[in-house]
Amino acid sequence: MDRKSNTGAAAEAAFSPAAGMGRLFRWLSEKNKRYGAEWWIMIAGILIIALIVFAAVCPTVFTKFDPLDQNAGTQLGAPNAEHLFGTDNLSRDIFSRMMYGSRTILGVAIAAALVSSLIGIPLGLLSGFIGGWFDKTLSLVMDSLYSFPGLILAISFAAMLGPGVINITVAVAVIYIPTYFRLVRGQTLTIKEELYVEAARAIGAKRSMILFKYIFPNVIATVVVVFSLNIADAIMTEAALSYIGLGLPGSIPDWGMDLSMGKKFLPSGVWWMITFPGVMIMILALGFTMLGEGLAEILNPKLLEK
């Protein structure tokens, strides 16, 4: 009995909250010594993103109002204890629209980055690895797309496809495909000439094995950084499309749309309709930018050698 109780007490002490916090602080201290400020930049970005993702998944934790409820309060009501961000011209609660609108902007931005990466990365790998006319043709097409300003290209596709979540996701995704293609192709051209790739060829490794076992793993670290930064840029692009009326229908809460509506009432002194959507867009884009910048430094091989 004594041995069992001693073992139980030791296990409880090993998994106690104090022991867990101690391990966490030691781990953070080790990362701080190894990476320095870049580590905390990444952590700050993760915390910002996590908070907004939580608001998107569980908006009812933060607000009791429906974002489409036109009887939530008085018309153009200033921020107060009940309506933290005030109400808009349709008497809707702006704070609830920010919480539910985070679903829209996060969904479109992340989906657009995923679609563009799933198309751009394989094309870049194949183009750089195969070479020849296939590489020249794809490079010409991608360079043609890349030569257009991103927002102008997104506006063109959004105007052609019309409003809707899927359509705006496609419009935003198209402008980032050349980014992944050019990045992955350039690295593939370099890596395929490395000695370990030549050695794999010499021992008779299949082309598919060389591509996915030796080249792709050395490309993915940079792609992760670009993916995070592209989400930040996609957030701004989606908001811009909604701001000019090429985004989503009015039945879907969206920060860019609220920003566009708010500008009409700014001369009348109604500052809260435009301020809070703008701040939320800036904070979310900043979170992904900080994550990307932190990852860029942490995944830098030269930094890891220090």
Précis, in short:
This protein has about 300 residues and is mostly helical. Helix content is about 75%, strand content about 0%.
Explained architecture:
There is one protein chain. The chain has 306 residues and is mainly α. The chain has a single domain (35-62, 92-304), classed as Orthogonal Bundle (MetI-like fold), CATH 1.10.3720. It is 74% helix and 0% strand. It contains 13 helices and no strands. It has helices at 2-14, 17-35, 37-57, 94-130, 132-146, 150-161, 165-174, 177-191, 195-202, 207-243, 255-263, 272-298, 301-304. Helix 4 runs parallel beside helix 8 (177-191), helix 7 (165-174) packs across helix 10 and helix 9 (195-202) packs across helix 10. The chain is flat. The chain starts with a helix and ends with a helix. Mean pLDDT is 83; it is low at 7-13 and 302-306.
